[in-house]
Amino acid sequence: MISENIQHKNFHYLKLVELGEEYFNYNPKSHSDPINNIKEAVKFTKFSLPAHLGEYFIKYFQGPVFWIIDHSLVKYLEDYIVKNVKTNIDNFNLAKELYTKWTINRNPDEKKYIAASAARLIEKNQKDSCFLLNIYLAVILTYERSIYNPKRANELFENIVREIENENLENSKSNELKYYVLIYWAFLYFTNEKYDEAKLRLQEAKAILPDNYTAGVYLTICEIILGNSLSIRGSLNSIIEMDLRRVQHAAEQNNFKMFDYFLSNNFISAIFSFPNIWVIYEDFENILDAEMSRFEYASSQISDKVKRIKNFPSTEYIHNEQWTTLSFFDKVLEKYNTHKSFLYIRCMNFLFKKISGISDEIVINIKNSFSIDIEEKIKTYTVGIKEHQETLVEYKQNLEEEKKENKDKEKEAIEVFENKLENEITTLEDRISNLHNVEDLNPRHAFQNAITIGIMIVLLVSILGGFAGYSNTFGISGGNLSKVVSGVIMSGLKWGVIAAVLVVIYAVLAAGSVVLEKSNQRMKLIKKISDLKRMKDSAIDKIKKKYADIEVAISEEYKLKIEEKEKTLNNYIKEKEEKEADYYKEVEDTIQYEIDRFIQFISAEKENNG
């Protein structure tokens, strides 16, 4: 019973592989042809693709190839390690060389020897090993059956994920690297059919880069094998839809090399590498039967459409854009018109709409060809309208420029006024703060001057008073000299004291007078500053009003110019439209005749072919 069940599974798997070979370009021999896989990878890296289609799809049995191709992530990691990671560069280069040789070698014995050498080198220098060397080792232990070691490979993948977190990689590159490492970790579980574990790793990868498709494809395969898929047909169609997005993008670009690459290197082929996928055989066959039944009809429709358009005799209506598309279809039909490619069939609705769109483009070309003649006839109006439009734009620009210039002058005038006012106020404030330095307003200086003069007066009064007092007291009678001197001094002292008292009183009054004058000067200066500040706002308002009046005058002047020019422009446009309508009316029948001739031609060709 068990033997019959195994035979049943094997039978259905072999039939499934046959379907893959016939309809999806699946080639089991490619598993052991790394050189061809590298060539295909090189083709992919040369395509210019949008971000959502730019992921390189890693096929399970071709997994080792990814780490030696010219992929942006691989180049970034190698440069990063050389510049930033403290590792033995000689060992790194040797390990990389051994890994590359192991990947591209087809001889099993040589591969075994090279793999063992690479593994020994990396393990021996484990302390100096970096995350990329550990990836090499983990991949070798996963894919090389002679030293297959899932336990050690599992440890390595676990360590690599931790190592990535500790590296100073760019955030986008760090996420991309983790994404791919988790996919290879899942591949490790594929080797011993632990699909539950593989599913977990793929779910982690998809969470990191949800828009990428490699993880999604293998996650769908896991779900099918585990029997978790609610709809096998829906799961298969989800993978096919991913393929179609890439194929249709290539068709949109009229890029046959890309179109051919995506039809051959499709996602759906990945399912044929897993014997446990045999359960989808019947559903898969039903999908194929439903689609392939319309192969000949759909293919002939596209082929007939291309021939009809190419055979239209008035080739002047078929422009370069249409010829490029027709050339693309020629290449597609040459290779796939008799080739039962499932994805090609699924893409036919898109291709038919694309080739049908050329008919609409040619109709537009027919109309435009007459439009060129009409445009030439109304060129005078077109030129005139353009000139008036340019003049109108110039007027509006000049208006804005003059208004801006006026605003600048207003701003400058206000600034000049404010600066002048500020200078005057500053000068007055300086005078206030320096009043004490003015000699005529310094009370101490006035007091000293009064005292100085007073001393001279006191001396004079003392001398005069002394002699006058002596004369009055002693008359003209003589006496001895000592009495004379004593009399003069005593009389002089009396008058000197009186004079000194008067001098001091005068000096005090003089100093007080200066204090009063200084205070008076200060009050005058403060009042003048206050007057200047008070008149500032009114003076600025006058300046603003002056320039506002100038702006109104400028606006009025240009308003008249613009209105006059707009009127002239509208008249030109109206005349042009009237002339254009007349010319189109004259050639309307001719245009319709050419369009009808084109439509009748391709319809007649269709009928003849029918």
Structure description:
This protein has 610 residues and is an all-alpha fold. It has helices spanning 2-23, 34-46, 72-84, 89-104, 108-124, 131-143, 150-166, 171-191, 195-208, 214-226, 232-252, 256-264, 281-292, 295-310, 320-336, 342-346, 348-377, 379-433, 443-474, 481-609. α11 packs antiparallel against α12, α14 (295-310) packs antiparallel against α15 and α19 (443-474) packs antiparallel against α20. The chain is elongated, with a radius of gyration of 52 Å.
List keywords for this structure.
single chain; 610 residues; mainly alpha; 80% helix; disordered C terminus
Q: Please state roughly what percent of the residues sit in beta strands, choosing from under 5%, 5-15%, 15-25%, 25-35%, 35-45% or over 45%.
A: under 5%
Beta strand count: 0
Order of helices and strands: HHHHHHHHHHHHHHHHHHHH
Q: How would you state the average pLDDT, rounded?
A: 81
Alpha plus pi helix count: 20
| Shape assignment | elongated
Overall radius of gyration: 52 Å
Q: Give start-end ranges of low-pLDDT stretches.
A: 605-610
User: Helix proportion of residues, in percent?
Assistant: over 70%
Distance from N terminus to C terminus (CA atoms, Å) equals 56 Å
* Structural class designation: mainly alpha
* Main sheet attributes: strand count, strand direction, barrel closure: none
